[in-house]
Amino acid sequence: MMIKTLSGKVAIVTGGSRGIGAAIALRLAESGADIAITYASRADSAEAVAQQIRAAGQRALAIKADSADAAAVRSAVDQAAAAFGRLDILVNNAGIFTGGTVEQVTLEDFDHIIAANLRGAFVASQAAAAHMGEGGRIVSIGSNLVGRVGRAGIGLYVMSKAALTGLSQAMARDLGPRGITVNIVHPGPTDTDMNPATTERADQARAAMAIPKYGEPGQIAGLVAWLASPEAQYATGGTYTIDGGTNA
């Protein structure tokens, strides 16, 4: 039986209706936290995750909020805190991918990925920090591509995650005096519906790994759960790469 290290805590996971976000939401619930998740369009998937959280014995709330819509993101955080009476943990997981070389992408592409992957995390963090006290946790999901850009055509995505890394480190300084930790997790190739482990590109990715296999969402969730736990109270401003040794 899993120890309830987060009993009595409340977490919000943005983009929690599928993939890594869903795994994080469920792992935090198994650790005893009540969970709010946000989703952009897949209400059925979000409600399915919420039902799994309730089955684990925790309260759950699914809130529609596109990460590129600053007002919706701020409202979602405030709704979660109001519904559960407190807010202890924020996981900035929501994001998008836009492919294309520097000659191909547009200014609109640039603005949209910054809005979704960086501004959304900033707004959520700012809103969450207003509700958090001593022991608050903010964890953002980045990408191991920040450390090693392995192919062409991913510049906008890498840029947004690199900026998110800098933001996380800066917020660790800002919020540390209040006892709130801020960290970022950089997953490598992880088997989800957006990045399946069964494609030709996946075979190429495995060739670059020290452990030649795709990660599982639950493995990313386990690291996030540790960062959210009391054991990680002295860990802040950190970047944690979990990518099977791709960047080694």
From TrEMBL:
For this UniProt record, the keywords arranged alphabetically read as follows:
Oxidoreductase
**Which InterPro entries does UniProt cross-reference here?**
KR_dom, NAD(P)-bd_dom_sf, Sc_DH/Rdtase_CS, SDR_fam
Q: Name one GO molecular function term.
A: oxidoreductase activity
The segment(s) forming the Ketoreductase domain are 9-223
EC number from the UniProt entry: 1.1.1.-
This protein's superkingdom? Bacteria
* PROSITE patterns attached to this UniProt entry: ADH_SHORT (PS00061)
**Family affiliation:** Belongs to the short-chain dehydrogenases/reductases (SDR) family.
State what protein this is by name: 3-oxoacyl-ACP reductase family protein
- Give the source species: Labrys neptuniae
Q: Which lineage do the record's taxonomy fields give for this organism?
A: Bacteria, Pseudomonadati, Pseudomonadota, Alphaproteobacteria, Hyphomicrobiales
